[in-house]
Amino acid sequence: MLRANSRPTGDAVTIRDEVAEFCRHGPLPSEQDDSEGADADLELRERLLHAITKPVEDDEARLLTTCFGDDNCFGLAWTLLHLVESAPTPPVTSEPPKGANPWITRLWIRYRNTLPVCPRCGLSPQ
User: Fold this and answer.
1) How far does CA 73 lie from the centroid of its chain?
2) Rounded CA separation 74/120 (Å)
3) Checking phi first, is residue 100 left (phi over 0); if not, alpha (psi -120 to 50) or beta?
């Protein structure tokens, strides 16, 4: 269920229009993309990404994690990561499998680094 500029009520999942529009375009393009139209696509993605205001809801953050590409996308991936991290709950709380998208792995590492460390053994619970 998509509703413009609304927040979840009950069990209904609501995704703001600007989040849905950004995600509709799929993963961020690679910095190596020199195809025709790549510059226009990059400018569109930048505009759409910056139209999303913080904080995002948990459902929006989970959806946004599907939009990471394989590289920095000229810094847009970092902007996306910070947007995802503005959600109340971290979207990645378990270790991703080997070969997972590097940005998903980065989200996991950043989450893991927030966990308390055992004073006896120096290990975190995960």
Assistant:
1) 13
2) 42
3) beta
Sequence-distant (6+) residues with CB within 8 A of 49 are: 22, 76, 79, 80, 83
Please list the alpha-helical segments (H only) found in the chain.
17-24, 38-50, 58-64, 76-84, 102-112
| Residue spans per domain, the chain | 17-112
36 vs 78, higher pLDDT? 78
List pLDDT tens digits, range 37-52: 999 999 999 999 999 9
Q: Between the CA atoms of 54, 14, 18 and 4, what dihedral angle is there, to the nearest 10 degrees?
A: -110
Cα–Cα–Cα angle for 69, 74, 80, rounded to 5 degrees: 55
Q: Is the pLDDT of residue 5 over 60?
A: no
* Interaxial angle between packed helices 38-50 and 76-84, expressed in degrees from 0 to 180 and rounded to the nearest 10: 30
Amino acid at the residue 78: W
Tokens (6 digits) for 80? 């996306």
